[in-house]
Structures are given as C-alpha cells and as structure tokens.
Specification:
Radius of gyration of chain A: 20 Å
Structural class of chain A: alpha/beta
Strand content of chain A: 5-15%
Low-confidence stretches of chain A: none
Distance between the termini of chain A: 22 Å
Largest sheet of chain A: 8 strands, parallel, barrel
Oligomer: homotetramer
Chain lengths: ~325, ~325, ~325, ~325
C-alpha cells in the first residue's frame, strides 16, 4: 500500500476568524501551542509553516528545536504576503517598486529558511490579483508575476518553489487562478525548481477535476506538493477531506499512486467552528480510509474499462470499493 | 424622478478584515468615527446599525444625539448574532436552550432600540445554518427558525422585522438562503410586521434575478428594505453598485419605481481595500446615475415590448438609455 | 429496511440529443421500445410519462395495456409544454391568451389521463421563465404562474399536482426556480392537491442541500414526489445517482426514511452517451446500495450528535457506514 | 477609432434546438439560407463555417461563389467533431485508433479547405473530455490531445490553428477547459501556427476575466481569434453581447485595442428563441456601441489610475463613458 508522509498546515491548528467575526471563533494560539496540537494528531509527521509570520517570536533554530520536540519536521515554507496590510493591492505585482521589492525580499527569506529546514517553499500569491474590471493593467500583472517568481526561484536552485494557484479569495480574481495558468507561469519562468502545489479545493473552485489537474502536472514533472480538504466547488470552504466529494478524493488518491507521487501530502483546512485537533484527526483518518478505498481499486480492471471510455463500465469497475458488491 | 432616501450600513465605513488578514486592511474605527465618515458622504441620509455591537459604548440616547449631529437617522437596526463566538453553531436555531434564549433576547433588545429610534429591525441570521451534511437536524432548524422569528416579531407589532436571506457565508449553508425561503418563513410566521430585506448581491448569489425577487416580494407586500452592492454572482463580494452588473441594477431600480417602493435604500458593501468614504460616495453617485438610466426607460414602450416576450424587442426598448442611439 | 417503489422517467430510456448533436447520440426509440427497455431494468416498477408527447400514437387504454404487459405502472404524468415550439416564450405565462389557454388545456388533459391511470401529475414548467433582463414583466409572470397552476389543480381535487422547480434550462431563468418559490406557489394557490416534486440535481443547482429541501417540504406536507440523479451543482447534469455526491445522496435517503416518505422515488437522468438500460440498472443498484448505507446510520447516535451541532461529532456518527471503521 | 472586421458563426443564423426540444425552436435552414441571412445583417463581413457539416451539399468552390454573392468571406473554418454520434466518447482522444484517425482526417480536411478559402482553422474539441470521475485515463487524454493537435498543425504551417477552450458542454468536463490549459497545449505542441480562439462567454464560464485572458494570450502572441457573446457566468448561454456584462465587454474591447489586435472578431451566439437576423443585428449594433464606449476611455488617464491599483480611482477613470458625468 502506498504510504505518504502527511503534514498539516499549522494554520489548521490555530485560531480561526472571518470578516463577520474578526475576533475569532476560538482563542488566539501561539506557534508553540499550535505545534503542540499538531503533535497530538496521530499520523501527522510534518507541518507547513508561514514565513515570516510564524517566526516573529522564534528563530529558525528555535523552530527546529520545537519541531524536533514534537517529532515533526517542516514540510513546506509558505510565503505570507497576504497577511500584511501594506500589500493589500498586490505584493509581487505591486506597481510601487519598493513594496514589490519588499515582497521579493520576504520570499527570499523564506527560501533561506526552507534551505535551513530542508523543505520546499510555497508561493500562494494571495494578494496578487484584482477585484474590479479595469482596476489593474493585466499586461503588467503578468510581467511582474513572472519576473517576481523567477527572481525568487533563482535565489537557490536547490530549493523547490511550488506555486499554489487559486481562483479567488482574498481577491475577487487572483492572478494565478487555475492549473493551466500555473503551468504557463512555470513554462515562462523556465526554471527546474519551479513547480506547482495542487490544492484539492482550489482545483474544484476552478471547476477542474482534481485528479485531472494532478495528471496534467505530473506529466510535466511539476507536481511539487498536494493539499487535501473538501469544498462545495464554488468557494475555498476548506472542509475536512472526504466529507463532501468522496469519489473525487478517492480518484485523487488513486492517481497519486498511479503517477508515483513521492512527496508530502498536506492538510489545508480551516476548521472555523471545530476543535482543531479533532478536525485534523478526522482528516487523517478519512485520508487513510480513502487511501484504502483507492488501493482497493483494481488498476488493471479500471484501465481496461477506461479503454472503452464508457461511464457505466468504469463505474462498475470502481463502485464496489464503497458499495461492497 | 423617483427619489429615495439612501442609507449606508455603518460597517461600510469601518475597518475591514478577512480570514487571511484578521488584523485588518485599515485601522479600527470607533462608532463615532464611522458616523463622522457617513456624514461626509454626499447623499447619505441614514445609517443601518447593529445591535448591540454598535452600542457597547453608547446608550441609545447618545447614539441619537450623535446621529443628529451628523444629520443622519437610523434607518434599520440589525441584530448581530454572527459576531459572537458563543453562537458559532447557531443563534435562533441553537440546540442549547440557554444560547437560543440569549439570541432571542438580543433581538428583543434590537426591537426596543428600533422603536426608540423609529426604524425597522433587520434579521440577517448569519449564524444559523450548517457546514456539513448530517451536521444538523433540518426539521429542528426550521422549527426553531420560525419559532424564534415569531417570538421576536411579537415583541412589538409596530416594529417591522425584515428577514435578510443569504445563501451562505459565514456558514456554508444558511437556513434562510433564498427569496422563496424568506417568503415561506413570512407565511409560516403569519405576522403583518414580518417581511424581507432584499440584498442585490444575495439575490445574485442565490442565482435569482434581483428585480424578479423584488417583484415577488412586492406582490406579497413584503418588501421591507433593499440593499445595494454588486458581485460576481457566486459570493457576497459586496462591491460598489453598478461596477459589474449594470443592466440588472438598472432593472432593479426600474422595478423599485414601478412597484412604488417608498422605504429606504441602503448601501451594504465591504470596501476591503478602498477608502470607505470614497467607496460610499462612488456608490451613491452610481446609484443616482443608474436611477437616471432607469428613469430614462419609457415604461409604456417597454411594457408593450414585454407583451411580445421577445428578447430583441425588449432589448431594443431599453438599450438606448446606455448606448444613446 | 425502508423500501420504495422505484420508477424511471421514460425519457431516461430513449434517444438523447443536445444542441450540438440534435440528431442524437443514439437512434430514436418508440414509446413501445422505451417501455420494453424499462421492463428490462431489475427493480423498476413504474415509469413517469409525458403528456401528451408519449400519447401521440397510443390511447390511454393502449398505454395501460402496454404497461401491464411490462409489469409496470405509471407513477407520474408530466405535462410537456417545453417540447413545443409554439410555447418557446412561455406556456402558463404566455402573454398571448390563446397560447396560455392551450397550455392549460394540455395540463387538463394530463390530469384526466392521470386520473385514468391512477397517478399524480408533474408540472415542470420548462418553458416559463426568461433569458434576458427586462424581457418579461415579473409581476405578470407570477400572476399567470399562480393562476395557471390553480386552474389546473381545480380540475380534479383527487389528482395530486407536483410542481417540479428548477433554476434554469431550457430558460436562463425559470420562474419557479427554488424550493422556496415552489412552496410559495403552493401557499398562494392554496389547494390541498398542490405540492412539490423534488429533484436531487435541481436542488443542488439551486445551491440547496437536497435533504434540507426534503425536510422543508415534508414539514408542510408538500413532498409529493422525489427524483434521483447526480450533478456537479451548477447544471442539471442528470448523471447516475451516487457517482458524484455520495454523502448528500445518502443523507437524502436517510431523511426520506426519517420523514416517513411513502410515495414513489423516480429516476430522472439523461444518459447522453450511455446505454440507457445499463445506466438505469446502475442507478437502481446504486440507490439500493446507498439505501443500505442510509439504513446503517444509527439514528439515535446521529441525533444525539446533532444536538451538539458539532461537525466532527456528526461526521464520526456517520462515516463508518462507508469507511467501515 | 479601431475598426474590426466582424464575422458571424453561421450557426447563429440557423435552426436552434436543445435536449428538451430537439425538433427545434424554428425551422431547419439550409446553408444557402443561413448565408442569405448573414448577408442581411448590416456590419457582417464574414462567416465562420464548420467542416465538414456545412459542406455536405456544397463543394468548396460552390461555397466560395455563394459567399462572394453575399459579399462575405469565410473568416474561420471550425472542425465539427461534436455533431457526429460516432465520436460521442471522444474524437482526438478516442481510445479507438480508427476513430481517432478519422477525427484527425476530418481536421486535415478543414485545413485544406481553410487554405483554399484563405482563413484560419478553429479547433473546439467539443467531444473530448469526460462526464464522470474515473471515466477516462487523464494521462492518455493529455497525450492524445497534444498529439492530435500537433498532427493537424503540421499539415500546413501556413494555416493558423486556433484552439477554442471551453470548460464544459457538451461534456461535463472538457479537456481543454481554460485559457491556461490552452496556452499549455500551445507550448507543448510547440508550433508557430497553433494559437487560441478566445470566446468571451467561455472565459466567463471558466471564471476568468475575459480581458485578462485576452492580455495573457496577446502576451504570448497566441491570440488568433475572438468570439463575442454574453452569459451569466456558469454556462455557455451564448446571449447577445452587451446585454448582461456590459463593463467586462467594454473592457474586452478596450484591451483588444490596447494590444493592437488585428484579426476578425466573431459572433458566437445561440439565439434559441429569437429571430436570428435580428439577434445578429442587435449584436453588431451593441458591439459597435460598446466600441465607442471603449474608445471614449482615456487610456492615459486610466493607466495613471491603474498605477495606484485603487479600484475607486480606476472606476472614476472609466465610469463617465456610461454615466456621462
């Protein structure tokens, strides 16, 4: 059976808030407390962190010690440009050269931290996009997006950079909004160490079949990280995996195996109203259960059915893993 | 030309935040400061307030004085159950009788305040809904929703209660999620003073044509309040009116006139990254400009075209107001 | 274990076509041939028919004989106003009184046929709606919709009329587009024999949770018929049940049981590219398998968890039926 | 003022049908009749044709004569694989090598016809995609898609091939479903004569801002054709341009000018219930009117505002062209 190392975004274990309840649905939690909670979840071996917001009170060395203490490693270092007010109109694409340079510097810091901690870097450019027609000059947006990512990727060719695309939120339109745009950026940047972090719910929001996006990225050798969660398809609901779109999650796991994925799989959820440790535990349990379902699919039988391209034949090849008949 | 008194939700003029930037895209602003800003917007004559969160440091009398000073009145008093952590799983529908009673009590306080200030009450039950299949017993949800609204409406039959429906956010599913459900609740409650507050973007999110929803409510005498904003149809983007869906907003204004609406029209926006006074001013300017477009439609000509039910004929009857030909 | 009589819409077993391939993805099939196919599907005991398009070459008596021969009964008689070019701008709502009268007459014929065959009538008003802003006068639309349904329902109070709501297609906006609007119409019409036919995919398209819609209708005694299929939530994809949204279909079946539904459950699919008998057989097999999953949910345990309103607790209460742990 | 040659898809002028009314909302029309209608629309100088379905009764030479008679030219030759039942499971991606070869041969015929008529080829691969999870092997889908397009493009390097991406319909998922995937395919194929045909409504359906997609394609020199229509964002409604999303269409025209587009602009609509000549005339009139609005935008003023990235500033820079203030 395929085994994957599972990590959790540290944010899954912290305080949640939204625009209607900005003071939060639970108490604020320190990085130490969130790490402690991560350590409590059976099956979690790593965490994804944010640079530099998870390091405001801790040095990299202190973080490493804390991780070690919890028997965790850092699987991915995400660059947090979206949590700073100054970048509200854009980070990598900001038309103010000083703000743009500061964003690149932040990402450069993340690369350095990632090298020290032995992990990849995640670039989810949450601040880069637009809200209204006519608001930005799209020609500049694309130019600056590509230039910025190339600059960051050139800092250290040994550190992998995974672009995490997302259609929208917090901007109404985000610049790198689909798997195809992410691949296009990889191609334009043209560097080996630039790939894509695929988030299940983001793929759904862009109306993709996540397993198809996975195969498209794998085909190009650009699948650098995968995130698990679930959603109702038109927003990044960040629910517990397997609770809404069971079949498409099983399919996602099936193709992870078939394409011989060997990196981390990560939880990226937002348990607004739930206990974070319980939510992560349920996520791990569901992923493991769905992995068993995916493993139970007879690949030869399915591939033979797929040659017919007939939906009934392919459904007959897979449905038994859930319906036991 | 039809004239309407325009109010602004006080929240349009305050600090904005979201789950990725909970510390806000601008500085926190006191109620006094938000009222000062509202007073700066030319064309704004009223504000919608929230009970009790706008009254934590001000008595009702003090609020009235402040409003007077700014030449404003309170047009609607919204019940804020969604900003309190304790109601994260539901307010009117909470299965804990104590929490449910507290929610009803909060709304009862809003009715009293509304009576003192001479305005209606808004019930946007943002906390009542669910996020996952199986999470709640829908039978109880409907029972408690209706019972709660009836209880609040019976507090004072002279105070109008406007139910503001919304499909989702902050819950993935909200209980009163469409114009039809809101009307159903009005019918079940069966009290004269219970009607509906129609939000343009909420209607879009529920995939309604807002003008059709308006006519449906007007037909039943249940159109108690209208909100203006704009959106991309699948989320409550709360953008400035007239910037995305121009035609449907003009149509909305046309039917406000045709159905002889005589209450307030309110701004309900969330200018996350914009100056709030400038955003509200643009909103007022756009509404007034679109009102002129709506007025420029020749009702007789349009109604004659509508008898043919032909889209080309009806488009020919209205397009000139924008295209001037 | 709850058992339901399952019927199939006869159209599930015929030729499929769309706007890009109007000559069809398979050969045309006569009513006799479609009935023969229905008889081949193990577990199908009834069919839903269309008045008058399924009766152009058969009398009601001949239909009854044919049904008997196949060991089938007619479970529901749907009024087909949407297949006639003359009603392209509206049937019940057409502003031309003659066309409107002809639509009512067609429905009246369906009531008579339903009485003879001992079944209910289905009113899916596919032609009534609009495509563009300003195209119709919504005030007239609602007036004529309600007037038309009332007229049809008064023909024979012993024949149940189930309004099947749908957001869109073939019109961009259909007049009765959500569960709430359907309930509103029931209320306005005010007759005992007017209720609602709930279609799983239509509920999804209106962004409802189908089980919630089911409970809302059951609460009012208005759940007259249920349709099964599956979809990706933004269109009426009419796929085989259980292939996309497994959990929500299990939930739908769970609440059918809990609300003690005792009428037919019907297949409403459009197997564009599949063998129709195989597609219906898969549908029946999936529904029976999901019924077993729904039965396996311990109602007491789930209801206890639902009292906490906590998503983790409720997920823990149901997930085992699929994950077997 | 920028002037563009406008063409109409011949299908805009023919019979319309859908799955509920497969016999059509109007009478069948011959190619000759559709061309006659196209000639009646003031402002139309070209037509887009389909290979080989528009040539079943006409030779290429006869078509040229007919076009000349109507003072029209062929602006684009689309390959029709989606109207043939045999390719219901895929054309370029069919797992049956014979069917795949036949699809490539059809496209090769279109290239030859395009060369003779002096136009580009359109590849909207409507049959290539999938409807259910697990139905196809995505790895094969991408391999065959790219291989097929490359083969067709190599037939004649002087004939431009424009890939028209579309999210879905007639398949629930189409393989080339977004602007990014289309660009990715261009990159993988790696031939100068392979580019993209951008359809306004398809961009909306993929939740793109059409003007942003336009700029992305222009940046790569891959904008080979543009289609106009309008839609409600979640389906390919193919409505008359300018009737729903006015601002985004003006923006689309503004960026056509700014990026110095010099090819055809085409109508791609489906006037299901409207007179086709009137619908096309309204479309041309609206496009010309919106072109005037786009021309009225002061590029220097807008670009200065765009440097601030502020939505209020940019709205203030453009709103006057509609609101005249």
């Amino acid at each position: 059976m395929a085994t994957y190392r599972i990590s959790a975004g540290l944010w899954c274990l912290g305080q949640t808030a939204d625009r209607f309840c900005p003071t939060g649905y639970s108490d604020a939690a320190s990085v130490q407390e969130m790490l402690r909670r991560a350590g409590e979840v059976r099956g979690i071996e790593g965490v994804e962190l944010h640079w530099d917001t998870d390091f405001t009170e801790l040095s990299i060395a202190e973080m490493r010690d804390l991780l070690k203490e919890r028997k965790l490693v850092c699987s991915n270092m995400n660059v947090n440009t979206f949590g700073y007010r100054k970048w509200k109109h854009g980070a990598f694409t900001n038309r103010d050269p000083r703000l743009r340079r500061e964003a690149i510097e932040l990402a450069t810091g993340a690369v350095a931290a990632a090298r020290e901690l032995g992990c990849s870097v995640g670039l989810w450019l949450g601040a880069d996009g637009f809200d209204y027609p006519f608001q930005v000059d799209y020609r500049k947006q694309w130019e600056l997006t590509i230039e910025g990512i190339r600059t960051v990727a050139q800092v250290d060719p040994t550190v992998d950079i995974g672009i995490e695309y997302k259609l929208k939120e917090p901007r109404n339109h985000m610049q790198i909004g689909s798997v195809g745009k992410a691949l296009y950026v990889c191609h334009e940047v043209g560097l080996e160490n630039v790939g894509v972090a695929l988030d299940f719910g983001h793929a759904l929001m862009s109306r993709e079949d996540p397993a198809d996006s996975l195969c498209l990225l794998a085909r190009s050798g650009k699948l650098f990280n995968v995130h698990f969660n679930d959603a109702y398809r038109e927003w990044d609901d960040d629910l517990v995996p397997g609770t809404i779109n069971l079949w498409e999650t099983v399919e996602y796991l099936y193709y992870l195996k078939v394409t011989d994925y060997r990196r981390w799989i990560g939880l990226d959820m937002f348990p607004f109203r739930e206990d974070p440790v319980e939510a992560c535990q349920l996520a791990v349990d569901n992923i493991k259960a769905m992995l068993r379902l995916a493993e139970a699919i007879d690949q030869k039988v399915l591939e033979k059915a797929q040659k017919t391209m007939d939906a009934i034949a392919t459904q007959r090849a897979v449905r038994g893993v859930v319906f036991r008949e």
